[in-house]
Amino acid sequence: MPSPTPRQILDTLLPYLKTAGAYARQIQPRIAAQPAKAAGSDNFFAAALSDADLSVQTFVEVALLAHFPELRFYGEEHAQTYNTKYFRAIDLGPQDDYLITLDPIDGTQFYLDGHDNYQIILTVLNQDEFEAVLAISPSQHCYYYTVRGQGTHRGHWQDTMADCRPLMVQPKTPAVCLGFALTALIDPLKDRYQVFHTGSSYSKQRQIPNFNGLLSGDLAGAVLERSQFIDGAALAFMAQEMGYWVTTWEGQPPPPLHQCRDMRRPGLVIGATAEVHRDLLAAVRTI
């Protein structure tokens, strides 16, 4: 039997991810936080964990094992689920031996605080680069998908992938988002941009853009101090496919995935235009 293509993988898993998203949306008002992932961590985003993270991952694992048992799989909660032992591997393999990754609730703190800009992110990784990404936004009733070399598309909740429309870079405001540890970048940027810093700007009462604002048009740029394959690097890949400028902090193209360690790319600078990217890169070089 021939190996499934990245597009076939997304097509098959989309209905399951929509069901998982509907579940997450339904229980959000009643969700109870699990013990923090990293007790004592200053980064409350990295520490947040919910019942939904664990349930969504288990559901997607069941779907993957039923349809694509031959594929590699790495889920964010792999250490806590019952199914990790049934997958062939949880790491990158040789070229065209795809690794599926899952962030079951990206933006768990947003989710726990009742905001609507959390998402479920599934990726298809090759040895060198992302092949495809599917980002489901249950409470915004939409989803986004990217297939390598074919751009990024957006669809309403009921749409099939064939119904989705290509996305172009169209930021609504000159706003940028900074990773949790990047407080030092606020001052160099605040005279030209509305700066959202995930640490100091976050509020339980007032929603701020998450990094998926790159897709919705709420952000003209972002700087990530680290970019995990399962979330930040995936969103950067989607932004790049829709026309954003994406480089490392040194201004170089992101390295091939197999050259990265610990399932993450280095820090990334993402700009909707050459000017935005240049401003962000210049700010990074001051720290």
Automatic annotation (TrEMBL):
- Asked whether the UniProt record includes Metal-binding among its keywords, one would answer yes
Keywords from the UniProt entry = Hydrolase, Magnesium, Metal-binding
Annotated Mg(2+) binding sites: E76, D103, I105, D106, D231
Keyword Metal-binding assigned to the entry: answer is: yes
Extract the Pfam families matched here: Inositol_P (PF00459)
Gene3D superfamilies hit by this protein = 3.40.190.80, Fructose-1,6-Bisphosphatase, subunit A, domain 1
* InterPro entries from the UniProt entry: Inositol_monophosphatase-like
Stretches assigned to coiled coil: none
As cofactor, the record names: Mg(2+)
The GO terms this record gives for MF are: inositol monophosphate phosphatase activity; metal ion binding
Its EC number is: 3.1.3.25
- Highest taxon of the lineage: Bacteria
Q: What is this protein called?
A: Inositol-1-monophosphatase
